[in-house]
Design a protein that fits this description.
It is a single chain. By secondary structure, this protein is of the alpha+beta class. It has two domains: 7-141, no CATH class; 180-338, Histidine kinase-like ATPase, C-terminal domain (Heat Shock Protein 90, 2-Layer Sandwich). The protein is 63% helix and 13% strand. The strands form two sheets. A five-stranded mixed beta sheet has the order 2-4-5-7-6, covered by helices on one side. A hairpin with a 3-residue loop joins strand 6 (320-326) and strand 7 (330-338). The longest helix is centred in the middle third of the chain and has 70 residues, at 108-177.
Amino acid sequence: MKSVFPRYRAAALHLSYWSIYFSFFLYQFGQEYPRRQVVLGLLAALVLNAALAYLHYFYLLPRLLRNRRVGRYLLLFAGPYAAVVALRVVADRHLLATAVNHRYLYSTAHTWSVAIGVLFVTAFVALLYFAVHWFALEARAKALENENLTAELRYLKAQLNPHFLFNTLNNLYYLAYSRSERTPEVVATLAQMMRYMLEEANRPAVALSREIDYLSSYIQLEKLRLNHPIPITLTVAGQPAGRLVAPLIFMAFLENAFKHGVSTTTSTAWVRVHFDLVGPDCCFTVANSKLPAAAPPPGPAGAGLPNVRRRLALSYPNRHELHVEDLPDEYRICLRLTL
C-alpha cells in the first residue's frame, strides 16, 4: 500500500529544519562576529551534525526499533557521536580562532556545549523520523478504512439488489398465477430496471433524474399487480438536472411503503412520494397508509431499512437527516440529503 505522505514532503520537512537551523545561528552570531567565519563554522557544524543525525536516522534508530537492543544501540551510537563532537571542537578551533575568544574555544565549557548541541540535533532529527512515520501510518490507516468502507458499501448494495429482485419476482408470481394480461408489460419494465441496476447502479453516484425515473418504473410495476386502482403519486418540486445521488438510496423506503402499506385486497390504501429540491438539499418524503391488522404484508421481513441506514452513514456522513413518523393511520419517512 502506498503512503499518502510522499517522500518529497518528508524531504521538505528536513530541508526546512536545516534551513531554520542555519538561519537562526547565522543571525545570532553574524551580528557579533565576522560573517565569513561564521558561515564557514556553521557549514562545518551543519555537515558534521547532519552526518551523525542521518546515520542515526537511517541506520541506528530503525535497528533499535526493530531489535529493541538498547545496549547494542548505545555502543553503536557512542563511537560516531564522540567522533563528531571531537571533529566539531577541532573545526571550531580552526575556523573561529580569530573571531571567538581563544580561551573559550579550548575550554571544557565549549566542549560540553558542542556535545549537548550535537545530541540535541540528533534527537530532533529522530523526532522527524517518528513524525514522518506517524503521518505515513495515519495515511495507511485512513486508506485501509476507506477500502473497508468501499467494500461494505458494495456489500450493502449487493444485498439490496437481490432484495429488489425477490420482491419483483414475487409480484410476477402473483400476475402469472392469475394469468394476467399485464405479465409481458411487467417483464418489459423489469428488464428496463435491471438494465439500470447493471449499467448504472454500480457507480458511486448517478443522475438524480435517472434515480427518479427508476422509482417511477417501480411504482408502475407495483400498480400493475394491484386489483384495485389506488392513489399512488410521485411528485418533484425543483429541477433534478445536474444533481448526483448515491444509486438506489431511496429504493428501500419505497419498497417498504408498498410492502407495509399496500395490499392487492385493500382498495383504501395510498402511497405518496415527493421530492423537494432546494439548493444543494434533496428532501425525499414517502408516506403510506397502514394495512389493517388482519391483513399482514406478504413475504418475509427484509433487511432493506437497516442496510439503507448504514449506506446513508457511509455515503453521506454528517450530510443527511432521516426522520421516521409512525402515526396511527400512516407511516412517513423524511430524508434530507446534502448533495
